[in-house]
Amino acid sequence: MTIMRRDWAAAMDKFRKNGEKFDIIMADPPYYMGIPKKVLIKLDAYDIVSQNNIIIIERHCKDTIPEKLRTIAVYDERKYGDTVLSFYRKKEQNGIL
To answer: Nearest Cα to 38, choosing from 63, 74, 61?
Structure first.
């Protein structure tokens, strides 16, 4: 397990450069800054998510994020007050979760 305390974009760039892949990714960025969407876009573009994976994005219910991107898609969401946990998975080669 790797836990890093650094800028999320710099960490993702490092992981991509090193060819690292992860089974579980949890992001809990600050609310109201549009970061959840940026994290998902970068995860979609970078090949750092293994095929057997789960991506969990914690966000405020008013923060909008895409349901699906090119390589990842939401498969579940749970709401707790104003907080939402969005669960994503990498699509298989045929585009199915």
So the answer is: 63
Task: Identify the H or E element spanning 53.
Answer: strand 49-60
What's the CA gap between 57 and 83, in Å, rounded?
10
> Per-residue DSSP letters for 56-93?
EEEEETTS---SB-SSEEEEEEEEETTEEEEEEEEPPT
* pLDDT mean by block of 10 residues, the chain; 97 residues: 78 92 91 92 92 93 93 95 95 64
CATH among 3.40.50.10070, 3.40.640.10, 3.40.50.150, 3.40.50.1110 for 24-90:
3.40.50.150
CA dist 2 and 56 (Å) reads 16
Per-residue pLDDT tens over the stretch 58-77 = 999 999 999 999 999 999 99
Whole-model pTM?
0.86
